[in-house]
Write a structure and sequence with these properties.
mainly alpha; Rna Polymerase Sigma Factor, Chain: A; Arc Repressor Mutant, subunit A; 2 domains; elongated; disordered N terminus
Length: 188
């Protein structure tokens, strides 16, 4: 076995293999990114089978469009954006509404509360469970903002709502998570 075959191929090399219709390129790109892309989808669409379907549809789209891809800066970011958009479209088909609620304004980060902040930094599993139990609209915004690092303005554009609505729903979701965590502490 040559040293070149042992070395990991770059994304550009794998894309070139795909464009040459070499199965190795498809297999290695899928293997390299499928789990991380799936995790991003699953944070938005909690149902495992639906998340798996969206993952497969995403890679089918990516591989069908691979010939159009040139000078990719970040292949994973490109695939993740397609996956997130598909997940959001899936939610819309299920009639999940992302309401525009500009009328309620949250005070700018209010007064810093040490106890509240400590609660927010409790066990990761409790936080994950609390996020998982949020209403779907809140959960989507929290996942896109916290886990996918998408700016709130961009989330608003993706969901067809204003930046203020995204900010308001994010703060409401954070409050719901904090309340859930406080309840958890009192139960123990």
């Amino acid at each position: 076995m040559s040293l070149a075959s042992i070395e990991k191929k770059t994304d550009l090399e794998l894309i070139a293999l795909c464009q040459a219709n070499n199965d190795l390129g498809y297999t290695e790109l899928y293997g390299k990114y499928a789990k991380r892309i799936y995790n991003s989808i699953h944070r938005i669409v909690s149902h495992t089978a639906e998340a798996e379907d969206i993952l497969q549809e995403t890679f089918l789209t990516v591989f069908n469009e691979i010939d159009k891809l040139s000078n990719v800066v970040n292949f994973e970011a490109w695939v993740k954006r397609i996956a997130i958009n598909r997940a959001i479209s899936h939610l819309r088909k299920k009639k999940i509404e992302f309401s525009n609620s500009d009328t309620t304004e949250i005070a700018a980060e209010e007064i810093y509360d040490v106890q509240e902040n400590e609660l927010f930094e409790t066990r990761v599993e409790d936080v994950r469970n609390s996020i998982e139990n949020l209403p779907q609209g809140y959960k989507t915004i929290v996942c896109l903002y916290l886990f996918e690092n998408i700016p709130q303005e961009e989330i608003g554009a993706m969901l067809g709502i204003s930046h203020n609505t995204v900010r308001t729903q994010y703060h409401r979701a954070k409050k719901k998570v904090l309340l859930s965590l406080k309840d958890k502490i009192y139960d123990e």
